[in-house]
Design brief:
This protein is mostly helical. The protein is built from eleven helices and no strands.
Length: 253
């Protein structure tokens, strides 16, 4: 059964990846928005924001990486929505295909597409002056955390992809996720925020994730941030996975 699932998932992932490679503007568009935000904040607002000894591009890159992921997963929901509307799922149900493989194909495609976008954004950041003395282990930790965030948000995107009534509804859920980094430590230290806003910023998941990635890049102790970030990501992943599976079973039953 496990081999059957892996083989079917590999075939279906190849199908969805071909759709992405035939429409590279999707990945480019996903990367353009965070790159534009990064350019604006670094060259327009960066000089007015005190981030201490850390250059502003170094300070805000972790938040930009999260915005990149949030932008990319909207396309996962849209691709899934079009598959549902096009009757692809009904045709799959008439074939001896592992049911879970259909969703996992979209998840793995999202992971690959988002990793490409993250690399593009990081390369632009390097051209803008981003520098880090982080070693291989620190880079692997950053990559692992970003992959975990991508998986959690992608499974979250599966839910509107299955349940939305329109393509706009399928993609619109990502807007709050793109906005969330702006009310966190991603762009300014939370100490500069008014009391209630600071309380929200300090305790929402983006802040712990951003702080953990930033400390890994700057070779600072990650403290509790890494554990809080992992707890948020794993918790969201499990909840989204269960809800997505429930929505899928209802849709195909």
């Amino acid at each position: 059964m496990g081999t059957h699932l892996f083989a079917d998932t590999a075939v279906l992932t190849g199908r969805t990846l071909r759709h992405v490679t035939r429409s590279l503007d999707t990945i480019i568009t996903t990367a353009i928005t965070p790159i534009a935000i990064m350019l604006m904040f670094v060259y327009v607002f960066g000089g007015a924001i005190d981030t201490g000894a850390v250059s502003y591009v170094n300070y805000m890159l972790p938040g930009i990486l999260l915005i990149t992921i949030a932008s990319g997963i909207a396309y996962t929901a849209v691709r899934l929505f079009f598959d549902m509307q096009g009757g692809i799922f009904e045709r799959f149900q008439s074939m001896p295909i592992a049911r879970a493989g259909v969703l996992w194909a979209h998840v793995l495609t999202s992971l690959v597409a988002n990793l490409i976008s993250l690399v593009l954004v990081t390369l632009v950041a390097l051209l803008m002056g981003f520098r880090t003395g982080a070693g291989v282990l620190a880079w692997l930790a950053v990559a692992g955390l970003l992959i975990l965030v991508t998986l959690a948000l992608t499974w979250l995107a599966i839910i509107p992809g299955l349940t939305a009534k329109s393509v706009d509804g399928a993609g619109a859920f990502s807007y709050p996720l793109i906005f969330l980094p702006f009310v966190s430590s991603a762009f300014v230290p939370t100490a500069s925020m008014p009391g209630p806003v600071r309380a929200f910023a300090d305790h929402q998941p983006v802040t712990s994730i951003v702080n953990a990635i930033r400390n890994l890049f700057t070779q600072q102790p990650v403290g509790n941030d890494i554990w809080i970030a992992l707890a948020w990501c794993v918790g969201l992943l499990l909840v989204a996975y269960v809800l997505a599976g429930f929505a899928y079973r209802r849709k195909i039953s």
